[in-house]
Specification:
Two copies of one chain form a homodimer. The first copy, chain A, is of the alpha+beta class. Chain A is about 45% helix and about 10% strand. Chain A contains eight helices and four strands; from the N terminus they run H-H-H-E-H-H-E-H-H-E-H-E. Chain A has a three-stranded antiparallel β-sheet with strand order 1-2-3, with helices on both faces. In chain A, helix 3 runs antiparallel to helix 6 and helix 4 runs antiparallel to helix 5. Chain A is globular. The relative contact order of chain A is 0.19. The N terminus of chain A is likely disordered. The interface between A and B is large, with 125 and 124 residues.
Chain lengths: ~220, ~220
């Protein structure tokens, strides 16, 4: 039981308290603007060099920390990287880490593929700022960190989009090992993802998405 | 390699394509309204019975399917439950499932605790609609479903808040086993969470949150 939250028991007090309080937040009216934000966020893989003002970055991170979190544990660390030397080092280590994959290819294919990879890395590493989203294995309910981590990353990316910035939820394209080594991330922190934040060189064409009817079932699957 | 996305290689073409396209989405101006949404979403544990219009529910689910998803796999199923009989059955099975925990308590404590649990369950199951967020183990990149699942749930909860509805990201308070049995969810689908959607009986008092400075590190941890 030590890592479960006993939702009912803990929930009882909260629900009860809630009933005798005035509403603490105003009810949002319907807002098409708010809803249009969700469809506007897209994965951006090449950025303009323009810096992100600290005020904007702070507001983006402030949104991320409002994500749902198990038992209000807030197990997050947001590691912000703007140092061009660190960004260059991550890029170099990524390219190294892909060399072994190139060796899986027939020799005559490697040159073209290496060019592709370098172009792609040039895009991923063209942003002025990166945020590594981490969770702390020493948090109050670590067995729930795999929920809390992506939730905060999603909030961060939506908030960035609300301010006009692009992001992309990167996992294996920038291997965890690379960020851990270059940024000296202690073992206690697990990486959720890393995302660039910056003005897109251009907004990508919207991806084809499944129809809502394919994804929704009513009452039974 | 079969389940990894080879981000660089796949990314190369996309980034490249992006460079020769017009912006497909307008750049959002700064919007305090959008950013205020993140802080407004709170976990709601007791609801009014008022139904959620289908139009609103559709818009909420439409936002959820726009979440970041690995290689655009969209591995989600959103199971919507409004049938009062199914909701009552989930509540009954939840209460049953907690009986074993009550037996862990000294006998003189059980009655009070049982009353607490019933009150809490009464709150959790007071909403007019529930959405079970699922991922498909037969998706294109199933090893990334643990990212995609919470991301979609977070989008869903923010979209609901934008329309004035409350939600709560429930895991063990309504055990997966209960939803799987009562709703006959096939084994191929993994449950991410279940959330009620409805008008809050009242908005809870905002929870105390860690300071941003505790959660953010610049350049190094």
């Amino acid at each position: 039981m030590s890592t479960t939250r006993r939702g009912y028991v803990r929930g009882a007090g909260m629900a009860c308290a809630g009933m005798f309080m005035e509403a603490a937040a105003s009810t949002a009216a319907e807002s098409p603007d708010l809803l249009s934000l969700f469809a506007k966020r897209q994965s951006v893989r090449r950025y303009k060099p323009d810096p992100v003002p600290q005020e904007h970055l702070t507001r983006i991170l402030d949104a991320a920390r409002r994500a749902p979190t198990s038992g209000n544990q807030q197990p997050w660390k947001f590691l912000v990287v703007r140092d061009p030397a660190k960004i260059a080092a991550m890029k170099a280590r990524c390219l190294q880490s892909y060399e072994s994959r190139l060796l899986e290819l027939p020799e005559d294919k490697r040159v073209a593929r290496r060019r592709e990879i370098e172009k792609s890395a040039g895009g991923y590493f063209s942003a002025p700022v990166y945020v590594v989203v981490l969770t702390d294995s020493q948090s109050e309910y670590p067995s729930y960190n795999h929920h809390d981590g992506p939730l905060a990353a999603g909030y961060l990316m939506l908030a960035a989009r609300a301010l006009g910035y692009g992001t992309v939820y990167i996992t294996d394209a920038i291997p965890e090992k690379v960020t851990r080594e270059v940024l000296a991330i202690p073992d206690r922190y697990q990486r959720v993802c890393i995302t660039p934040i910056g003005m897109p060189e251009s907004w990508p064409e919207p991806k084809a998405k499944k129809k809502l009817e394919e994804l929704v079932a009513y009452e039974t699957l």
